[in-house]
User: Fold this.
Amino acid sequence: MSARGLANRFSCAALGFVFVAACSALAGTQDTGNKRDPFESLLRERANKAIIDRPVGTFGLVIGTLRVNGIVKSPNGLLALVTNSTGRTYFLREGDRLYDGSVEKISMDGVSFHEEGKDAFGKPVEHQVNKRIYSSPGEQQ
Assistant:
């Protein structure tokens, strides 16, 4: 402990019993080192890291941010025309791998995705997400 931190503890102790705990906590905050802020959300930190570490192209698409704009019929099958949160447009085929899942089925009225992720406790979670072209009022896209 530095001489300054030691001096702060002794001066705080002289103020009285009630202030000792608060002053010792203040003296401990001067040496932060590599400690993270205990009041910072872990979930936000994980989400920000995921945004930064995503690859470019269809491998970086997150299912929750996609909007289905149309379906295109091609000789090789159906293609889904989707846009992400930044407004970029992508063509997806059945079986395409995305950042947090894959394209399961494409039909004339929408796309079915298989989403894989983890809950707040780190347990793997998988479920099917259906996104339609023409969403009804009140339906989340």
Summary: Residues 54-132 form a domain with the SH3 type barrels. fold (CATH 2.30.30.830). Residues 82 and 88 are 8 Å apart (CA to CA). The chain is about 25% helix and 35% strand. The chain has a mean pLDDT of 78.
